[in-house]
Amino acid sequence: MLRVDIEKQLGEFSLSASFSSEGRVIGLFGASGAGKSSLVNMIAGLLRPDRGTIAIDGETVDDTAAGIHVPTWRRRIGYVFQDARLFPHLNVAQNLDYGRRMNGLASDPAQHKRVVELLDIGALLDRRPGKLSGGERQRVALGRALLSKPRLLLLDEPLGALDEGRKLEILPYLVRLRDEANVPMVYVSHDVAELRQLATQIVMLKQGRVTSLGGVKVLT
Amino acid sequence: MLDISPAEWTAILLSLRVAVIATLVATPFGIALAWLLARKDFWGKSVLDAIVHLPLVLPPVVTGYLLLLTFGRRGLVGAFLADHLGIVFAFRWTGAALACGIMSFPLLVRPMRLSIEAIDRRLEQAAETLGAAPWKVFFTVTLPLALPGVLAGMVLGFAKAIGEFGATITFVSNIPGETQTISSAIYSLIQTPDGDAAAGRLVIVSVVLALGALIAAEWFARRATQRLHGN
């Protein structure tokens, strides 16, 4: 599903990671500054590795030796950022529809209905992002990413900006997403409890290096 | 209230036509340049920036004279355009629009540039992850978010264009019905023995138009802030 073997120098910090995974939810675990976000940004194509390869679903999207770098917009990924990044000039319905329009996909009312129900955002469709709570925003961002029909969903600390109560409110949606949406995910977090609930496989990062790889039990 | 004569109406309507055309033609160039200055680093950027602002600090008569040398019938560009495309600027209202467009360009570009600079680039990244090609990102995220700034730039440029005098009169002279705008009409009237009343009326029209434009620009700027906060 996902194969990563890259090196990247970011100022003083050097990132060197190699792993491959067939897991449904790859948990990318590490303290802040371990290089998790940089790694995810490279998988998304927002950051270019200095050396190495990245393959998503069998397609090589980065290969520095062969000069391959597929731009972000052609990678067919979904990305949920910590800060939601909903488009402020569009309402929720238009935000949800954005990826479908940009990819020129036919409208799929059944899928739309499924995602809206899964995330419980039907009542928000007419609202502007400025009028949503943090948790609502994150649910809409999830829906927006899913509706672009990605082959891989990247979630970079999607609960990181929420307080404890809100986290508990969103977690069940993420579990349902994992079990029902049928999209493989890379889930970045520094929170052991979150990953225990969600991840099927763990990649542990420490100071830019992969230190362990395996099932959820490596989170001790 | 104001008893405006047909001759004055001619000048007012010509001014409006010149300013509208100047603003509409300058806008796409303004947006492109604003984007370039806000987003790209390239060799000679500060020189380009200085050239754009030049009409703001150069004596208008100098700009007008340079336009005459370049776009006049015997000018380098003017001769080419007249011979090959049949476009003539010298002593035509189109020349007035060209002069006004160039003189107002710095004012038009500035709010556009500021509003593009104020856009959160992370929103553009998000659009890319959703499958939007760079040009689609520009038209669906960057431009809509910058729209209030774009409109504010257009309003300011329009206000400047409608009041332009020095470069216009130097380049295309002061021909009633063809190149005599409000400003040059006022100039002629105050040199005529009993033109005071007519000049006064045109002065009032000028003040109203300028004030209206400034208020509109302010309103658009406020909208811009609201829009960026997602309300």
What is the element layout, followed by pairings?
The complex is a heterodimer of chains A (220) and B (231).
Chain A (H helix, E strand, L loop, with lengths): L1 E9 L2 E9 L3 E5 L6 H9 L6 E6 L2 E5 L4 E2 L7 E4 L11 H11 L6 H11 L14 H14 L4 E5 L7 H17 L4 E5 L2 H7 L2 E6 L2 E6 L6
Parallel strand pairs in A: 3-9, 3-10, 7-8, 8-9
Antiparallel strand pairs in A: 1-2, 1-4, 4-5, 5-6, 10-11
Chain B lengths: L5 H34 L5 H13 L2 H12 L4 H10 L7 H25 L3 H9 L4 H30 L2 H7 L9 H8 L6 H33 L3
Helix pairs in contact in B: 1-5, 1-7, 2-5, 3-8, 5-7, 5-8, 6-7, 7-10, 9-10
Please provide a written account of the structure.
The complex is a heterodimer of chains A (220) and B (231). Helices cover 31% and strands 28% of the residues of chain A. By secondary structure, chain A is α/β, with parallel strands linked by helices. In chain A, the strands form 2 sheets. A 6-stranded mixed sheet of chain A has the order 7-8-9-3-10-11, sandwiched between helices. In chain A, helix 3 (109-119) packs antiparallel against helix 4 (134-147). Chain B is mainly alpha-helical and 231 residues long. Chain B has one domain (6-40, 52-228): MetI-like (MetI-like fold, Orthogonal Bundle). In chain B, 78% of the residues lie in helices and 0% in strands. Chain B is built from 10 helices and no strands. Chain B has helices at 6-39, 45-57, 60-71, 76-85, 93-117, 121-129, 134-163, 166-172, 182-189, 196-228. In chain B, helix 3 packs parallel to helix 8 (166-172) and helix 5 crosses helix 7 (134-163). Chain B starts with 5 loop residues before the first helix and ends with a helix. The mean pLDDT of chain B is 91. Classes of the chains: A alpha/beta (220), B mainly alpha (231). At the A-B interface, strand 7 and helix 2 of A face helix 6 and helix 7 of B. Chain B: This is Molybdenum transport system permease.
